Amino acid sequence: MTIVTELELPVFDYSAPDLTPESYHGRLAEVAEQGWLAQGPLSYVVLDREAGEFFLRSRATAFPGREIAEIFGIASGPLWEHIDANILNQTGDRHRRLRRLVGPAFTPRAADWWRPSMREFLDRLWDPAATSCEFVGAVARPYPSLTIAAVLGAPLDDAPKLHEWSNWVQRQFDIRSLSNDLPRIERAADEVYEYVETLLDKRRAALSDDLLSALLAAEDDGDRLSHAECVNLVLNVLSGGIDTTQAQLAHALRLFAEHPAQWALLARDPGLAGCAVEEVLRYEPITPFTARICVEQVEHRGVVFPAGTIVAICAERANRESPTGEDFDISAERDGRPLTFGAGSHYCLGANLARAELEEALTFLAPRMPDLALDGPPELAGIEGIYGVESLSLTWTSP
Asked: What PANTHER family is this protein classified in (predicted)?
């Protein structure tokens, strides 16, 4: 056995100033050719699927949210309370209890219940006379905000506020933002805590069909969620369910504009929407890296990872690990589920809702935007945290 610190590893710096969204796929591929493991600035980077799944599923690893927060001096206040209580940072019996109680609210059937609302929002945002738009501002940003507002039972007029809070609270996972924007992230956590408390107070007085009502009514053998657990789970939905879907939908339209034959195929056969969503999730994951910390010594492939070692599982490389993995093809048969939503006990709670939102959007848009094309280079965000699209100008012809 060799201790990981004794290995001579290639370096992949995911925070390097010269690492651009346009270059990072190629640079990752070059590093992956040298082996399954690389050295990063705060962690080791795991570059293949089997090893990635091993660390994501291992009971000897956990999400290092608290440890990363402490590196940046976050040890108290609402942001720390959110990080400390986040279901991502729970392990063992506590984590299993929370997943058991809230699981019914996040099933595929629960997500499907919101599809008519998703279609209504898409129709509201769509301009039938348009043949061009800046897609992020026109659709990708407001659509998931409206959906999450409906799911939570919040006023739809609050959707822009929800997006703003989600954007900032989500940056707790972005090491560059933690370095530069910590006061703004903490202020957003303050504001959203107050907002969620008010929402919950209103919903207790009149339960409905929304997620808040489901959380307040969640019960298993007499066990119920505490008030603090309800608040923090709603914060998880807010911080994890808006920016992520916005980014993935914007990348989807960018990819299809770059692959017009695939867009035409989807328009001809809307039944491919589910496959199209899976291919977008596989090809361009908006969470390229998922961190885990070894809570005890871990051994894998003859390498010892001491307790306290942080690894970053690279979904981008894992997802493309096949002979045709670098091809974007919605009709291709793929082996295995992409690691975009993680794996194991911490598999993303909101994955079913996100998939439903993306399916409805692609089904709605494909027949309405023939000859889809880029109208200038997209403006892409950094790959730390959520890999998003800042601006995406598109053109199409009238159906």
From this structure: P450, PUTATIVE (EUROFUNG)-RELATED
